[in-house]
Amino acid sequence: MKFSVIKHDNNPLRDKIAESFxxxxxxxxxxxxxPENGVKxxxxxxxxxxxxxxxxxxKNIFVFSLITADTNGKNLHSLCYTTxxxxxxxxxxxxxxxxxxxxxxxxxxYFTTPEAGFYHFPFDPEKVYQQLLPLASARFAIGNTFSxxxxxxxxxxxxxxEKLKKFGGVMDSLGILPSPFPLKKVLPxxxxxxxxxLFEMKGLSYGNLSARESIPELSKTTFxxxxxxxxxxxxxxxxxxILLVKGFDMKxxxxxxxxxxxxxxxxxxxxxxxxxxxxxxxxPDVGAIVHVHAWMKGxxxxxxxxxxxxxxxxxxxxxxxxxxxNPARTAVGLKNHGLTITGPSLDEIxxxxxxxxxxxxxxxx
Length: 365
Prior knowledge:
Blueprint: E1 2-7, H1 12-27, E2 31-32, E3 41-45, E4 62-68, H2 76-86, E5 91-97, E6 107-112, E7 118-122, H3 125-136, E8 143-147, H4 159-173, H5 183-186, H6 189-198, E9 208-212, E10 223-226, E11 242-249, E12 254-258, H7 273-282, E13 288-292, E14 300-301, H8 311-323, E15 331-334, E16 338-343, H9 346-353
Parallel strand pairs: 1-2, 1-3, 3-4, 4-5, 8-12, 14-15
Antiparallel strand pairs: 5-6, 6-7, 9-10, 9-13, 10-11, 11-12, 13-16, 15-16
Helix pairs in contact: 1-3, 7-8
């Protein structure tokens, strides 16, 4: 696997840590290469005061930005997340030294992800490598292919669509629709547009819902799902806020979406569509799925904090569901992220989980 290192300034501690990580990557057989030479990931060396980003031309290049900070106090999480957004990174690594160390041998390394993951451990180049390698090799599957073949009787609404609207509001009332990060406060317009174009977004939002509705003339597996970048508490239109998924092209990494003749051209189904489609296809008794940035006690949990919208996350969730007593009526944890919850219907899911949700997601390395 090829990778690049982009260095924007000088920082003794950061550069020492970067050097040891680069050596570890090379020891594991990876090749240091210019970014235009088909690299899979980039190590972006930047700083808190003037964070710089690497302008990748494909979403499949993972960017790991490395910075240092002289505090591990209450503001570190906010500082790291702000820098993550500034640098357009998949993961931000922040080294916090002990006793002003400049060797990198005595510091904590903090990881911050776009899904609000935030965890740390004592710096060790091998452990950092093992933490990042699965992410760097993950495959995004967030594309959409649209067809205006939605049967007319589904153009306006259905009872299932109305349930999605209702329970989007319920999610809001339960406090499990965390406010998305205010991009406009930290990024210039050009950077936001580049980010949205790269990941086919029109805004940031957390959490999603879907529910199965059988439309056999389209395919064997059809379900409604919330669109990405929209306010789940105010769902309204088919083809805008709520989209019908009829399958998935795994080779191309694209959801197959059916829409009415008039639809929002910039609409895209949630990035978690790959996971939901895989669950519905694998478990015919699942009638609805809810994803929340919250937690429940006693759930099985993924081993890696794979990014949303990757095939690897979808496959691991399905693997976990197969280990539960009843995959069609359960919840599994997404490491440092939240929950995927299955049920026969949205009504059943919310009746079962509403009193059990823990808003604060536990973080662990």
